[in-house]
Write a structure and sequence with these properties.
This protein is an alpha+beta fold. It has ten helices and four strands; from the N terminus they run ααααββαααββααα. The protein has a four-stranded antiparallel beta sheet with strand order 1-2-3-4, with no helix packed on it. Helix 3 (about 55-70) crosses helix 5 (about 140-205), helix 4 packs antiparallel against helix 5 and helix 5 packs antiparallel against helix 7.
Length: about 475
């Protein structure tokens, strides 16, 4: 045994100079000192974004989605699988012990002269087998650490999925509110056009208005009713989409809010250099790069000799009662040194494959960094432009409503033509609809910006429950 240890100790020391010190090709992307889209923004770290909306019902829905959304459950299950795989790879570094209990009965026939005789024999034994591949070069440790990095990356993926789900629920919630407001506006439009049609019809019957005016009024009513039905479809689809995110059956029974919140809070975006530590998708890409690096190192070490150690011990007795008798003890010990010589280029190809996968992971990591900066810069630009657009639409809406009221009064007094009245009404409702739409777009962009900055909910993460019977019972009870 001392000979084995001395020999492999010398081999290990001699190999230290030939194993390369490999480093991952880390991306050299320097973060800017300030955001180019909004350099005057506050450098304070982003605050919990759900607090800005001050909507308890929205918070409750996000809690529900984090517990019961099925896509998130699938991501959570992948964490468990990655953790188990990490333990599997880590187990290869330790000695493997197994036990074998055996029993055998045999019969042998023999002939002597004209006589036939037979004899039976029994054999019983217990064996304990210990095997261990000594991780002389650290190859098994590299594989274990790579699996651990995969596990951490899956946790980062889960965190990113949670934030994305919360943002999707909030966006769907505001979309549902906007479509409901658009539906109510369409109802108001139908009633207004019906009133105008009655006024024109009364004038037509009294010989004041022409048949053309009456046909135009009727056409406006029909168009308004069609738009009203379309808004009903939009609202129905928005509610069902939200229910799917919550893990509910999509029966469009969810009651939404009536008004969209206003964005008055000063936005803190933090420094660009701190973004990469907050983005879970970037952190996941970084961990995958580290894992690929470790696998490349392990693939390179496959070219080096492998030393394994195996020993077994047990008993071999003819009687079951002697199975634990130390006098029947048998044992053996063996050490192996295996040096790959020729395998058709397989090991070299595996090393080249691992090298290429490392380069791919490095490129993905760099792309994740650029994508993170792109999402923040785009959202900051949209933040400013949408705010300006909303202010213009607020003015346009106010003026259009005033113009509609004046047009109705002047038409009733016979001062303007019916076409002018209809045009004033059309512009008024188009402006009101556009204002609702831009208000919702500002909310959705603010959610996108918070998500691009790395998220951050208003509370500690809801504990994710594993898939269980009650989980599936909740699903099928709704079907």
């Amino acid at each position: 045994m001392r000979f084995f240890l001395t020999f492999f100790g010398l081999v290990y020391l001699s190999s230290c100079g030939i194993i390369p010190d490999y480093h991952s090709p880390n991306p050299t992307i320097e973060p800017p000192l300030a955001w180019s889209s909004s350099p005057s923004q506050s450098t304070l770290e982003p605050q919990p974004w759900l607090d800005e909306f001050n909507d308890p019902q929205l918070n409750t829905l996000i809690d529900e989605a984090l517990l019961y959304n099925y896509d998130l459950q699938a991501v959570f299950a992948r964490i468990s699988a990655a953790k188990a795989l990490s333990r599997i790879n880590g187990a290869n570094r330790f000695p493997q012990l197994s036990a074998d209990i055996r029993g055998k009965r045999s019969q042998r026939n023999s002939t002597g002269g004209f006589n036939l005789s037979s004899s039976r024999s029994n054999t019983f034994g217990v064996d304990f087998i210990l095997s261990w591949e000594l991780d002389v070069w650290g190859k098994l440790q590299n594989r274990s650490e790579a699996a651990e990095q995969d596990f951490v990356s899956s946790e980062m993926d889960y965190r990113a999925a949670r934030l994305s789900l919360a943002a999707n629920v909030a966006s769907s919630w505001f979309n549902a509110i906007e479509t409901h407001q658009q539906f109510q506006l369409a109802e108001k439009k139908v009633k207004a056009f019906q009133l105008t049609r009655l006024i024109i019809q009364d004038g037509f019957e009294n010989g004041i208005n022409s048949a053309l005016d009456l046909h135009l009024a009727r056409a406006n009513v029909a168009g308004a009713k069609s738009q009203h039905d379309a808004r009903q479809v939009d609202y129905d689809n928005a509610v069902r989409s939200l229910e799917i995110l919550l893990g509910r059956y999509p029966d469009a029974q969810l009651v939404t809010g009536n008004t969209l919140p206003e964005l008055n809070k000063h936005l803190a975006v933090g420094l660009p250099s701190a973004l990469l530590r907050r983005r879970p998708d970037v952190l996941a890409a970084e961990r995958r790069l580290i894992a690929a690096d470790l696998r490349f190192t392990a693939a390179w070490k496959n070219l080096l000799p492998t030393f394994s150690f195996a020993t077994s011990g047990g008993t071999n007795a003819g009687q079951l009662s002697d199975i634990f008798n130390y006098e029947t003890l048998i044992w053996n010990i063996m050490g192996n040194l295996t040096q790959p010589i020729f395998q058709g280029g397989r090991l070299i190809a595996e090393k080249d494959q691992a090298d290429a996968q490392t380069m791919e992971a490095a490129a993905n990591y760099a792309q994740a960094i650029l994508q993170a900066y792109y999402e923040v810069e785009s959202a900051l630009t949209s933040e400013h432009l949408l705010n300006t657009q909303q202010q213009s639409l607020q003015l346009a809406t106010s003026e259009s409503i005033e113009a509609e009221q004046l047009a109705l009064e002047e038409y009733s007094s016979g001062l303007i033509e019916m076409v002018t009245l209809l045009e004033a009404q059309r512009r008024s409702y188009e402006a009101q609809s556009a204002l609702l739409q831009i208000s919702n777009q500002r909310l959705l962009n603010r959610i996108t910006l918070y998500l691009a900055l790395g998220g951050n909910l208003h509370y500690e993460p809801v504990r994710q429950e594993p898939l269980n019977e009650s989980f599936f019972f909740r699903l099928f009870s709704q079907l």
